[in-house]
Amino acid sequence: MEKLISVSDLFFSIQGEGKNIGKPFIFIRFALCNLSCDWCDTKYSWHKDFLDFKTYTLSELLKNIENLSREKHCRNILFTGGEPLLHQDAIRKIMNALPTYFFEIETNGSIETELPFDQINVSFKLKNAKTRTYTLKILPFIQSNDSSKGNPDKGNPDKYAYYCKLQNSAANASDLLTVSFSDTPSSVVQRFRSNFAIFVTKSYLSGFPKYVQQNDGQSRDVQNKFFQDKNIQNRNHQIDDIRHKNFLRKNVSYKFVISHENDILEALNICEQYKIPLKNVYLMPEGIRKEAVLERGKWLKKRCRGIGVQFTPRLHILLWGNKRGV
């Protein structure tokens, strides 16, 4: 029997917070959560006294998403909750079925994921949430020689796609690009923005075709000529150094809900603990009423400017108040 997917909300609106604020999205709000935040404004997605959701088969949910997508001319999907990473199997199937869509997720960061999201918004909970403490599992940096992410099984599409996306993120950070071959081995493959491929170490060459095609259509004898080119040798040493550094994940942002001044210091301590760059940090005023968001937002915006983090309002609250499905 096909497993049913529990969804509290499915609707079209604009992103009200964070990096993609103002952009149109199809929202999929999954039911259930592994936390119990005191100020949560979507308790109907997880609290036993207010829980409200519908169940869908995968085909039913995909049909609803595609209908909404055609009607609203939108191919951006935002997974939220509750805690959406409790539903990773369903999310994986949705992503596989809609490969041309943009996928963003709102998560509390307490659960690891290898799914290749285009944007991850981690809303790490401070003490003001009055929920259990937890360890951040979605970290801001990847390490290119991390054995847990290296040598992925190509038979596992999720893990391999995630690995490729991480390598591409690392490549962008150091002006490199990921190279794709018809039979790419699991070792790290990268190249400079040039007209031919170069590889990290000589030992990797055995896993690749003897010849690679250049942009001019001619073939280059990689295995015989690779180490004869001094320019390639120099670049190869640079890549070898780069492999052992940490790279910032450009698709991950961190958001902290701020109720009082003390919350800012706590958020900064969290950033220091997990080495989160301040340029990836958003502070957001807590509130489910327009007046509360505006009042806190006035002083919070000034604090953000002073410490070098980004401010985000709760745009949906300012526009519609604390309404469901907007």
Q: Would you give an account of this structure?
A:
About 25% of the residues have low confidence. This protein is 30% helix and 21% strand. It has a nine-stranded mixed sheet with strand order 3-1-2-4-5-6-13-14-15. Strands 7-12 form a two-stranded antiparallel ribbon. By secondary structure, the protein is of the alpha/beta class. The protein has two domains: 207 residues, TIM Barrel (Alpha-Beta Barrel); 104 residues, no CATH class. The two termini are 33 Å apart. It has eight helices and 15 strands. Helix 2 links the parallel strand 4 and strand 5.
Rg from alpha-carbon coordinates: 22 Å
Write down the overall mean pLDDT.
78
CATH class of the largest domain: Alpha Beta
Distance between the termini: 33 Å
The spatial strand order of the largest sheet comes to: 3-1-2-4-5-6-13-14-15
Q: Could you state the CATH homologous superfamily of the largest domain?
A: Aldolase class I
CATH topology of the largest domain: TIM Barrel
Report on the biggest sheet. Answer: 9 strands, mixed
Structural class: alpha/beta
Can you tell me the CATH architecture of the largest domain? Alpha-Beta Barrel
Low-confidence stretches: 145-154, 169-217, 222-244
What is the overall number of helices?
A: 8
Which term fits the overall shape? globular
How many runs of DSSP E, i.e. beta strands?
15
Percent strand equals 15-25%
Element-by-element helix/strand order: EEEHEHEEEHEEEEHHEEHEHEH
Total domains: 2
Helix content: 25-40%
